[in-house]
Design goal:
mainly alpha; 9 helices; 59% helix; 0% strand
């Protein structure tokens, strides 16, 4: 029996388009640090091709080189932006990575604006405003972060610290009411 974090292939294609937009929104933070490194941009492009039905799961997953790109930069905001692309690139395998992509993108926005405590919540609002109804419905099928151990939302990195707080805010915003606005997310630690 597949993990509830997997989602159907159709739902993964739907959330892939939204997650690609979230990762792309902060990609300039990475590219400012590593202008010659196209791995995160390539991962997002492959994910968009997957969302459009142009790539199968196996071909789309080849975009995971963005994880290595995150390790190759020093600036925390740039690394978080690359991790947003890397999480997004993993959606063809498991849909729950869409929340990881959004969380890393929000974290990147916060790290890039350490003097603006509302930067993370502003990024979350931007993400939610661009989430189509079909993506909202698909993401609502995912278990709460930390509640299911069979995927990226299980106990671990995405369920703890700032990333866990961001994902909990995103999930709560999706279930509270149809036009969600997240709670204020704490300012990231440097």
């Amino acid at each position: 029996m597949p993990s509830p974090q997997t989602l159907s292939e159709a739902d993964r294609r739907i959330v892939a388009a939204w997650a690609a937009e979230c990762a792309d929104h902060v990609l300039a933070l990475f590219e400012a640090e590593a202008p010659e490194d196209s791995r995160p941009r390539d991962a997002i492009a492959r994910l968009r091709a997957f969302a459009r039905g142009e790539l199968g799961v196996r071909e789309a997953r080849r975009g995971s080189a963005a994880h290595a790109a995150a390790r190759d930069v020093r600036a925390p905001a740039a690394a978080a932006a690359a991790r947003a692309a890397a999480q997004a690139a993993s959606i063809p395998h498991m849909g729950a990575h869409a929340l990881g992509a959004a969380a890393y993108a929000a974290k990147a926005a916060g790290l890039a604006a350490p003097d603006l405590p509302q930067a993370i919540s502003k990024e979350i609002r931007w993400q939610l405003a661009r989430m189509p109804a079909a993506a909202r419905t698909a993401v609502q099928k995912l278990p709460p972060v930390g509640a299911n151990s069979s995927g990226p939302l299980g106990p671990g990195l995405l369920a703890s610290g700032l990333l866990g707080t961001i994902i909990r805010d995103l999930q709560a915003s999706l279930t509270d009411h149809p036009n969600p606005l997240p709670q204020e997310t704490p300012k990231p630690l440097r």
